[in-house]
Amino acid sequence: MKPLKGKHILITRDERQNERWAAELAVLGAIPHSLPLIQCVTRNLTPALRETFAHLHQFAWVVFTSANGVRAFFDLYKGQPFTAKVAAVGPKTAQLLEEQGLHCDFIPSEYTGEALAKELVPLLAPHSDVLVVKGQLAKRTVCDILSSSDRQATVTEMIVYDTLCPAGAEEQAKRLQQKTFDYVTLTSTSAAVHYANVAPAAGIRAKTIACIGPVTARAAKQCGLSPLVTASEYTVKGLIDTILNDIGGMKR
Known about the structure:
It is a single chain. This protein has 252 residues and is of the alpha/beta class. The chain is 38% helix and 22% strand. It has 2 domains: 8-38 and 166-246, Rossmann fold (3-Layer(aba) Sandwich), CATH 3.40.50.10090; 41-163, Rossmann fold, CATH 3.40.50.10090. The longest helix has 14 residues, at 189-202. The relative contact order is 0.16.
């Protein structure tokens, strides 16, 4: 039995990440559709970034707040392996680090920036130098929590990529043959905002908006999107399980 048989599901992630997810949904019987609404673009290697890379050995911890941050970081960094301890916001981010030959020393119990920072604080030595790798739209939550803690960490923010709405997204949305979807999946606040901007003009409707976590769900609500279901495990697998639960299917 295929629990998602006949369900039309719209995937809005970065185009590079859509194919694998579409295949997973198809195995479960879903009819996946792709509308990339975010594009993560690695920044140019500026003098400031070169300077930070040159001093990686000075940091006690390097903190990665997203999988996209890992990709962009290693698009830019071609130096020797560094000895700092490494923290990742979740298992996917940690997996990408492992693929780059870096062991991940810490993953929080909840895959959010706030949990990452709060749970990392007790592991910091006093006055530690910490590098936080992020995109331009990421909030300062991680940096603020670490720098204001009793460990009095010195935090350096390193922005390595920009999150954009892909050129031509509006036209691609209008060309979708399916206009009403059983589920529209949102995996970031940017995707929520871009979907809210693009969908009305394209005539796209969602029976249910499926959000990867509470931060994305909050952004979706602020954009007037409903009804919502939110994954309790903030991963793609968790989001698929949430959809399965919502329709009464069995977890994989």
